[in-house]
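wait is this the right file?? whatever heres the structure
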């Protein structure tokens, strides 16, 4: 692939952190003894479930709108597509900046994520059977009504999201390997940015669902490969078409990619609750699920995983615990 993408520098990330910290402070990361015992080696968990929308995406929304405001380009209205956490991020930042916000979600989306977006002031539209169809509808609506289309992958989003990895890698300078979930790619590319900015030696392992393999397939092929989506639990990973810019970054900097099944994700959600009493949504538990899959290869290493979100519907979570 010939696509190149500029990643945020250390100065960019430090500036983004100041923007993020106007809304909330750095989220914690802990070495959980029971998780470490379960994994068979030291395990650190980064708690993005402890921020105001319960997921890492809020960091990117804040820096995206900060850039619009600084450049004098704040629009009257924005539109975006999501499975939930990106939408909450955009709704939060739009409300802060006095901008009207419309979010498109696919049919059958998380009931509680939908409610959270509405509570943040977003108008919600349901369209399509998956994220890609919702995204294409949002783009079409943007062209019709003039609202700014906020993508799910963009350099100004990466600046904010990079702050979570910057916090984690500074807190654990001797981390050997970090498991990084891949949705559309902002979280994973931000991990790369923070690693490079800090000169951290950590190896980055990408994590996808066995039922949403576009990034695994695309990395193997060296080009964007569309793949069907059927995961029932890891909606944050349910992307059908990889972003070409994200792919170009991840092909260069990921050590390898692990595919986790819905059953492994559910087991990780339950394990995280049993061992830490924190709630993880499916995509939020995927990193630990991948580490568990590779636990025999991790002996003696310090492992990092991000609990990237805790926004799981109560009915789903009760079934997982049951």
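ok assuming it is, sequence goes like this
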């Amino acid at each position: 692939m010939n696509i190149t993408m500029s990643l945020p520098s250390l100065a960019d990330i430090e500036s983004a952190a100041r923007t993020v910290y106007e809304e909330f402070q750095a989220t914690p990361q802990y070495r959980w003894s029971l998780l470490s015992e379960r994994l068979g080696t030291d395990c650190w968990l980064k708690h993005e479930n402890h921020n105001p929308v319960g997921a890492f995406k809020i960091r990117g929304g804040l820096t995206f709108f900060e850039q619009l405001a600084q450049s004098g380009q704040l629009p009257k209205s924005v539109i975006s597509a999501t499975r939930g956490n990106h939408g909450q991020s955009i709704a939060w930042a739009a409300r802060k900046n006095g901008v009207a916000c419309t979010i498109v979600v696919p049919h059958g989306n998380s009931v509680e994520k939908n409610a959270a977006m509405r509570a943040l002031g977003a108008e919600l539209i349901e369209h399509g059977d998956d994220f890609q169809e919702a995204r294409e509808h949002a783009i079409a609506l943007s062209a019709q009504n003039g609202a700014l289309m906020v993508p799910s992958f963009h350099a100004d989003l990466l600046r904010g999201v990079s702050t979570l990895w910057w916090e984690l890698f500074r807190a654990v300078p001797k981390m050997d390997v970090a498991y990084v979930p891949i949705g559309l790619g902002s979280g994973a590319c931000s991990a790369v940015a923070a690693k490079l900015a800090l000169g951290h030696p950590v190896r980055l392992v990408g994590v996808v669902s066995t039922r949403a393999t576009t990034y695994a397939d695309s990395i193997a092929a060296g080009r964007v490969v569309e793949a069907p989506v059927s995961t029932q639990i890891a909606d944050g990973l349910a992307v059908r078409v990889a972003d070409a810019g994200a792919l170009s970054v991840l092909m260069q900097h990921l050590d390898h990619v692990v595919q986790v099944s819905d059953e492994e994700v559910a087991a990780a959600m339950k394990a995280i609750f049993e061992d830490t009493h924190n709630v993880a949504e499916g995509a939020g538990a995927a990193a630990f699920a991948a580490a568990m899959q590779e636990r025999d290869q991790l002996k003696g290493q310090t492992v990092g995983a991000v609990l990237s979100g805790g926004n799981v519907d109560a009915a789903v979570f009760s079934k997982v615990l049951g």
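The mean pLDDT is 96. so i think its the right one actually
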